[in-house]
Every structure is written in C-alpha cells, then in structure tokens.
Specification:
Helix content: 55-70%
Strand content: 5-15%
Number of domains: 1
Number of strands: 3
Order of helices and strands: HHEEHHEH
Radius of gyration: 17 Å
Largest sheet: 3 strands, antiparallel
C-alpha cells in the first residue's frame, strides 16, 4: 500500500504543478491557445465543468459537489479494493495513478469550480476539439492498467 500512496501523491503533485505552470507561468487563460507541435500537441485552455468531453456540464453548484464526491468515493473504493485484495506492485502503481488523477481533478473543482484542461492533440487529418489534462492521462492509464493486469486472488 505504500507504493500506491506514493504514486497517488506523485501523480496528484505532477498534475498540480502542470496546472500551476499553465495558469500562472504560461498564462494560458489570457492567451487561449498555443501551438506546441501542431497538429499533434497544442495547449488549448478549457474549463471543464462536467465530466469527460464536458458531459453533464451545468452551471449548478450542486453538480460540482456531486462530481467531487464521486471522485473521492471512487478513490476510497479503489484504495479499499487494493488493500483488501493485497494488490501487487504493478496494480498498486495503476491504482495510485487513478487515485492521484481523480483527486487532482477534484482539487480543481474545489479551488476553481471547474477542472483545468489544456492539452489538445490531433492527428492524421482528424481535428480533436477537446482538451484534457495530466490527471486525465493518469486516470486513463490507471484504469486501463487495472483492467489489463488483473490481480490474482489472494490465497484463501
């Protein structure tokens, strides 16, 4: 469980630092968009009030708190599952990434009222209109990792 906690703290910290840099150093909210390595990687400022791709985005403050509660609830569930099933090293890494990413986005909702999204990637003639962030990457990798590398059941 120590590894899971370390990875979760590292993931949340990297997400936090990336957003601080984007907001305060790069000042992307003022600029709006920066072509980094077009069309593959661009910085595009987006405040996400909903879940992925802006789904369930409403101006209602209760939506914000429901999404925070879901992120915290999922994080607690994953941590309990990892503890109960005695996850191995790789599963702890993936669970830590998922938890760190979820809590990173929950922190944004508490602090800013929305999630700070700024990464935009397009390729091969397909223009992606959506933005995401480092926490989203961690959530995706963590969830896929837990699905692909299932934990063996502990000895009974």
């Amino acid at each position: 469980m120590r590894r899971l906690l370390q990875i979760a703290i590292l993931a949340a910290g990297l997400d936090y630092i990336s957003k601080l840099l984007i907001l305060n150093v790069v000042q992307l909210p003022l600029i709006g968009r920066i072509e980094v390595f077009p069309p593959f990687l661009n910085f595009h400022m987006a405040w996400n009030y909903g879940v992925n791709f802006g789904l369930f985005a409403h101006d209602s403050p209760w939506t914000r708190w429901v999404l925070i509660a879901i992120a915290v609830g999922v994080s607690v569930f994953i941590a309990y599952w990892a503890w109960k099933e005695r996850f191995g090293p790789w599963a702890q890494v993936f669970a830590g990434l998922l938890i760190g990413g979820a809590l990173g986005n929950a922190y944004d909702r508490i602090r800013y009222g929305a999630v700070v999204d700024f990464l935009n990637m397009s390729c091969c003639g397909i223009q992606n209109p959506y933005a995401f962030n480092v926490a989203d990457i961690f959530i995706f990798v963590g969830a896929i990792g837990l699905a692909i590398f299932p934990q063996p059941k502990k000895d009974g």
